[in-house]
Amino acid sequence: MPELPEVDSYRTGLAPTMIGWKIKGGKALWKNASDADFSSIINQKITGFDRRGKYLILNLDQSNIIIHLRMTGRIDLTENETPKYTTVEFDFYNNKKMCLVDYRKFGKVWIVEDIEKIVGHLGIEPLSKQFTSKKFRLMFEKRKGTLKPLLLNQQFIAGIGNYLADEILFRANLHPLRTADTLNKKEVNELYLSIRHIIRKSIRFGGTTFLTFRGPEGKKGEFWKKLQVFRKTGEPCPHCKRPITRIIVGQRSTHLCENKQKLHKNFINIK
Fold it and tell me: Which residues is 165 bridged to in the sheet?
């Protein structure tokens, strides 16, 4: 699934090209992809791009288009052509199309005036000015849950998915099965720094391509070349050369170095 860095690559990559484009029409080619009223945005112009978590937001004169790519979605700009597997398309007066291309058909598109109706449930943005080390410590104070599912909780922090969580925990030397209430102040701060470091690094490399993701201009994300543990099962740990292991945490495939990310009995809440 495209995560925060992949969606952000669309935000920054499409804005210089598409701001000012005037909408001629649009439609859902796959009914489950959108139940929006596309006629409501005819003749509106794109005025800006934004992102909340894994949601891409196109600001219009009076409305907003919100796109969630889900598992295999990507955004293609075409010369009035509709690519295979397109589920939603927007037509513009310059004879261009913006298409949600999604062969698994899980991606969703909304057209709303109030953005909060769709993204209001999301937690804090991990690269925002509001996300300080002090704020993160306060967020952690009453938490007792397991670290990996906590990082994946979009109501806690917006935008972190499976590969980011594994890489963040590896850098912070924290086992995915640790519980939040077992971390000391130093470990909480290291986790905070790792969240921001890994996300920024992934953005810098255009995100990661595993299946179908292509950023603006059809470019693949290059961060996969920098991954330390994700999908590296059996390969030597870059830190200690012990083999990377794979476990299941919260029904999600999870990769770690059990030597670097040690787990002691007192690090888990056993009920």
Answer: none
Would the pTM of this model clear 0.90, i.e. be above it? Answer: yes
pLDDT of residue 219: 66
* DSSP code string of 126-146: TTSTT--HHHHHHHHTT--SB
pLDDT digits (tens, 9 = 90+) for 53-76: 999 999 999 999 999 999 889 999
* Residue 220 contacts residue 236 (beta carbons within 8 Å): no
Q: Which residues pair with 67 in a beta bridge?
A: 56, 109
Catalytically annotated residues:
2-3, 54, 252
Q: Does residue 145 share a domain with residue 105?
A: no
Domain boundary among 95, 119, 143: 119
